[in-house]
Amino acid sequence: MKGLIIVGSAQRGSHTNALAQYLKDQIESHNEEVTIFDLAEQPLHTLDFTGQNAVPENYQNNAERLRNLAREADFIILGTPNYHGSYSGILKNALDHLTMDDFKMKPVGLVNNSGGIVSAEPLSHLRLIVRSLLGIAVPTQIATHDSDYDKREDGTFYLSNDEFQLRAKLFIDQILSFANNSPYEHLK
Ligand SMILES: Cc1cc2nc3c(=O)[nH]c(=O)nc-3n(C[C@H](O)[C@H](O)[C@H](O)COP(=O)(O)O)c2cc1C
């Protein structure tokens, strides 16, 4: 089984990326494969059908890689910072590069991080999008705050709040359970 985690922060080394790393470790502890696609490290061009703006080759390659990973994934996790009470624009743009064929009847996990007041609203907004893409957004979700993370000596963030660590384990158990017991194969 293969998974994909899309990280939608505009900041490299984001809290959302640290959460994705924690989730990746959990998934790998179940001997399942997962790839993190961090949009701050592999940016995509704004979706544009006008033909008036040349797209640099590295951006085209990033978009193609994302499409391939999404098409092959058995489950997808969407991670976003809270930007203006919702998910980030770059995550929406990444989703606009994908189609229903990438999401249809696949379990989708939703996680976000806020720097201000903790909010799960970005996840409620993403739930609507996942439905439109015919994915199955699992009920458990994770909404953290910057204070749930600490820094290592090298300056990178890690998820340090033990309640969220436990929730992350349950979240992954749920996604893998959906993916492993999918009754929807014939509907894909
Ligand atoms: C454009 C923008 C809008 C933001 N809007 C909110 C907001 O509405 N509520 C909030 O709690 N934090 C807001 N923030 C702060 C981010 O949630 C905060 O920087 C958080 O640490 C981002 O997580 P990350 O490190 O995963 O990118 C905003 C940040 C940016 C750049």
Automatic annotation (TrEMBL):
Required co-factors: FMN
The keyword RNA-binding is assigned to this record: no
Record's keyword terms, sorted: Flavoprotein, FMN, Oxidoreductase
Domain NADPH-dependent FMN reductase-like: 1-143
SUPFAM superfamilies to which the protein is assigned, alphabetical: Flavoproteins
Oxidoreductase is among the record's keywords: yes
Cited InterPro entries: Flavoprotein-like_sf (IPR029039), FMN_Rdtase-like_dom (IPR005025), NAD(P)H-dep_reductase (IPR050712)
GO molecular function: FMN binding; oxidoreductase activity
GO CC annotation terms, alphabetical: cytosol
Top-level taxon in the UniProt lineage: Bacteria
Family label: Belongs to the azoreductase type 2 family.
Subunit (UniProt): Homotetramer.
Protein name as it appears in the record: FMN-dependent NADPH-azoreductase
Organism this protein belongs to: Staphylococcus muscae
